[in-house]
């Protein structure tokens, strides 16, 4: 979903640039509360994994493909502030080195994928986690729900931006419908990849997973009790 | 969290009966998997337009995309300039991309984690 140069006019791109700078600035503070010496390596891994996974476009039919956005995945594994930074690093490298996503659209892409994608994914994840049984196996499932919802919402946000400052006039309803429709399908792929990746970490090191913290603490206490008895 | 300034990274709250995978092993495995995905599997990825490109084509605004400012980058478009073999060119660009993201991200998050433990 990398927006190239030219899709959005200069005022809109400047506005999303301001939003992106503010968001990343807040994330630099917020991530310090989420990160410690134990989890920092996982945060680095999440960033490079998202970069690699974004190269793997999967077909969704009708000559169209999609790829992982990774916002929900990153937020569940390392926390939403850290995820904002991880996705931003990916977008910076893609925009400069790989010419993927315009440079004047960098603010737009950070706003869409590192802010909307991450925070919608995280918000829906926490809701789903609350509704699902209080066990570790709920975490990948809740992550999948967050991932699924985050993709069409991010796509719909682009449509709104395009209605404000798009290069051509397209009725808002038409564009929202087209963007959300296609990205509901891509969201299924996002949900599957997210569930698999989160499951892999939950199976090996649940203690490192930010989104599993409430559940891991509860479990650790039970184990301790058994051992002292 | 006393003693967290220790050189060891292990702060096991309670040793579990099952042997735990070390953070180092987990991260190294993840890097290896990612390198394989970006360096080899990416060749088999769909080359169809992605969701946004496809919508832009159908709604008639795909042509408004400008020339990319870094199209002259040696890795523009996930290929290495000058390498004809698509498999090699794309795979190498993917591997280099993963390594660059890794270098920036590991440094950034390490610094942020460090600064916190000084508070």
UniProtKB/TrEMBL annotation, chain A:
Transmembrane segments: 6-28, 40-60, 72-93, 105-125, 145-168, 180-203
Protein name: Energy-coupling factor ABC transporter permease
Species annotation: Knoellia koreensis
One Pfam short name: CbiM
Keyword 4Fe-4S: no
Membrane topology note: Multi-pass membrane protein
Entry's localization field: Cell membrane
Main localization of the protein described in the UniProt heading: membrane
GO annotations of cellular component type: plasma membrane
Any one biological process term the GO annotation gives: transition metal ion transport
Keyword set, alphabetical order: Cell membrane, Membrane, Transmembrane, Transmembrane helix, Transport
Database matches in InterPro entries: CbiM/NikMN
Organism domain of life: Bacteria
UniProtKB/TrEMBL annotation, chain B:
PDGLE domain segment(s): 24-114
Protein's cellular compartments: Cell membrane
Transmembrane domains' residue ranges: 25-45, 92-113
Gene Ontology CC entries for this record: plasma membrane
Key word Translocase present: no
Keyword annotations: Cell membrane, Membrane, Transmembrane, Transmembrane helix
InterPro entries referenced in this protein's UniProt entry, alphabetically: PDGLE_dom
Pfam families, sorted: PDGLE
Protein name according to UniProt: Cobalt ABC transporter permease
């Amino acid at each position: 979903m990398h927006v190239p140069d030219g899709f959005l006019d200069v005022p809109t791109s400047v506005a999303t640039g301001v939003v992106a700078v503010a968001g990343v600035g807040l994330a630099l503070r917020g991530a310090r509360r989420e990160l410690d010496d134990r989890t920092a390596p996982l945060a680095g891994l999440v960033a490079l994994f998202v970069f690699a996974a974004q190269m793997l476009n999967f077909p969704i039919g009708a000559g169209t493909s999609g790829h992982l956005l990774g916002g929900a995945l990153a937020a569940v594994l390392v926390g939403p502030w850290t995820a904002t930074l991880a996705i931003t690093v990916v977008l910076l490298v893609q925009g400069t080195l790989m010419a993927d996503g315009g440079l004047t659209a960098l603010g737009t892409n950070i706003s869409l994928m590192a802010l909307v994608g991450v925070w919608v994914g995280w918000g829906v994840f926490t809701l789903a986690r609350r509704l699902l049984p209080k066990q570790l196996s709920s975490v990948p499932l809740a992550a999948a729900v967050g991932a699924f919802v985050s993709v069409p919402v991010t796509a719909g946000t682009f449509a709104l931006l395009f209605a404000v400052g798009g290069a051509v006039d397209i009725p808002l309803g038409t564009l929202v419908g087209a963007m959300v429709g296609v990205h509901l399908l891509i969201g299924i792929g996002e949900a599957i990849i997210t569930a698999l990746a989160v499951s892999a970490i939950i199976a090996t090191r649940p203690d490192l997973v930010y989104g599993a913290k409430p559940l891991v603490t509860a479990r650790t206490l039970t184990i301790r009790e058994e051992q002292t008895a | 969290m006393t003693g967290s300034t220790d050189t060891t990274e292990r702060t096991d709250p309670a040793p579990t009966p099952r042997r735990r995978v070390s953070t180092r092993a987990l991260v190294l495995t993840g890097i290896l998997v990612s390198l394989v995905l970006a360096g080899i599997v990416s060749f088999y990825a769909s080359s169809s337009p992605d969701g946004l490109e496809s919508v832009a084509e159908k709604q008639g605004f795909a042509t408004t995309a400008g020339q990319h400012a870094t199209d002259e980058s040696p890795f523009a478009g996930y290929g290495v300039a000058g390498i004809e073999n698509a498999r090699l060119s794309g795979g190498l660009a993917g591997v280099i991309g993963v390594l660059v993201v890794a270098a920036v991200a590991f440094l950034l998050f390490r610094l942020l984690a460090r600064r916190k433990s000084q508070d």
